[in-house]
Amino acid sequence: MADTDFSDALHPLASPGYGKRSAPHQEPRGPHDFAHLPAREAAIAAYIDRLPEGSDISVKTLAKQTPYGQCALRTALNRIQRAGHLRRGRECLNGRWITRTWFTRTPRDSAWWGAFQQGDVPREAKRTTRSRAYVLLAALGRSNSALSLSHAECRALTPLVEEWFARDATDDLVLRALTTGLPQPVHHPAGLVRRRLTDKLPPVPVRRTPAPPRILECGTCGAPGHADTLRDGDCGPCRGETLPRPRTHLPATQVHTRAATIRGALEAVRR
């Protein structure tokens, strides 16, 4: 498609701390990532997806780097936002609020963005492809034939290895824990691996700084709000919704009557 021919090779970076930020836990890049978008929006989304972290993805800069004008880009970015690929907002880093634009090739719904706003990073359901932990276990037999495991054993032990990875363990650390000082002979490879993964499990790492709080903003007017109210990235008024009318005040006569009733009840209690 001709629209995708523009190059990202010379795209400028934003000021330090600003620019594109990739949302976590995206699916691997594929040829049909943005097939659900119109052609122009798909081309722009694919272009942004290729840009490195911190790239300036403001409308003015995108207009200089792509064949599209600023008006077309604003419309396209709003559609990309409504499709769940983009959110705008601010993030507190070291006591300073930084403007952010988060992008994800994997579309997310408002519930996901709501959890992300609270500092949580929800993962997608696990795919049926082999995980990093499974691959490590399956390769043990190539390192030491005494630790050869079956497919069923690898699947059963995978959650234990994933817990090591969750505690910041590297592949080399796991392999050393499993292969150093093996008894001769190894009578039950799966049992030995399970015991070592359990007994040698490293401590939970100390997180010195919690996930920074985030504020999402309406993609049209910039008003801050929670992801639940910023459906498709826009606030209610920008989506054309009418705000509820404020409650009307009671007439003065009704106020006086109610006050007199309350005073009478209090006097009865005192008696």
**How many distinct helices?**
10
Shape: flat
Give me the strand/helix succession.
Answer: EHHHEEHHHHHHEEH
Largest sheet: 5 strands, mixed
What is the residue-averaged pLDDT? Answer: 83
DSSP helix fraction: 25-40%
Uncertain stretches: none
Structural class: alpha+beta
N- and C-termini, Cα separation: 88 Å
Q: For the largest beta sheet, what order do the strands appear in spatially? A: 1-3-2-4-5
What is the radius of gyration computed over CA atoms, rounded to a whole number of angstroms? 28 Å
- The domain tally reads 2
| Count of β-strands | 5
Give the DSSP E fraction (strand runs of 2 or more residues): 5-15%
Overview in brief:
The protein has helices at 39-50, 59-65, 70-82, 110-117, 132-138, 140-143, 151-166, 171-179, 189-199, 252-270; strands at 20-22, 86-93, 96-103, 214-217, 224-225.
Give a description of the structure.
- There is one protein chain.
- This protein is α+β, with helices and mostly antiparallel strands.
- The chain has two domains: 1-121 and 211-271, no CATH class; 132-199, no CATH class.
- It has helices at 39-50, 59-65, 70-82, 110-117, 132-138, 140-143, 151-166, 171-179, 189-199, 252-270, and strands spanning 20-22, 86-93, 96-103, 214-217, 224-225.
- The protein has a five-stranded mixed sheet.
- Helix 1 (39-50) crosses helix 3 (70-82) and helix 5 packs across helix 7.
- The longest helix has 19 residues, at 252-270.
- It starts with 19 loop residues before the first strand and ends with a helix.
- The model has no long low-confidence stretch (mean pLDDT 83).
